[in-house]
Amino acid sequence: MTDKHEQIYKAAKLLEGKGADRERIRSAIAELIEAVGENPEREGMRLTPERVARMYDELLAGYWTDPLELVNGAIFDVSYDEMVLVRDIEFYSLCEHHMLPFLGRAHVAYIPRGKVIGLSKIPRVVDLYARRFQVQERMTRQIADFISEVLNPHGVAVVLEAVHLCSVMRGVKKHDARMTTSAMHGAFRKNLATRQEFLDSISRGADPLRM
Q: What does DSSP assign to residue 63?
């Protein structure tokens, strides 16, 4: 493994193993059903522990996604040094504080330094970090750091907008509250005009984020 590959794996922040322990999840969910006083053997709930265990394989897949397989060699030498922007990337994640979903859209931009990445890979990078127990602030930074590590561009900008069900279904119950986070590297941090171009581009024609 090359030093570059090691840095990419380090940026991916994976967990060991191949996936979640389904048997432990099944047992935990069965215990939860009984703990609230429900009947785990009734028709609607008999298979719930197994369903939930399979669901977490999907919802938390980012912990075990191989970043090199994700990129799959889709990095190309291109003479282009203007902003590349992929906007309105939908994502779904799980808040690590209450294990409830937060969902929204991501906007990711970079300024190439002789290399570009395949278009479909940027949404996959978003999912790499969304499909985990997360906080939005960290997820924003992780996406930016990964793009920086893979491409070494002149700059990277990431903005996430999300609705958090932990503040919609419970607690303050604010249905219209939205959270926005950003991470700026390189030219997007140093150059006000570059940053403003990015912010103008993601706001132009954008619909309000709705559930």
A: G
Beta strands 179-186 and 155-164, pairing class: antiparallel
The CB density around residue 90, as the number of other CB atoms within 10 Å, is 12
Domain 73-203 has CATH 1.20.1070.10: no
pLDDT the model gives residue 95: 97
pLDDT for 59-89, tens place per residue?
A: 999 999 999 999 999 999 999 999 999 999 9
154 is catalytic: no
Pick the catalytic residue: 6, 90, 97, 196?
A: 97
Active site residue 134: no
The structure's pTM equals: 0.94
**Is 166 designated active site?**
yes
CATH fold group of domain 3-9+17-59: GTP Cyclohydrolase I; Chain A, domain 1 (1.10.286)
**Catalytic-residue membership of 97:** yes
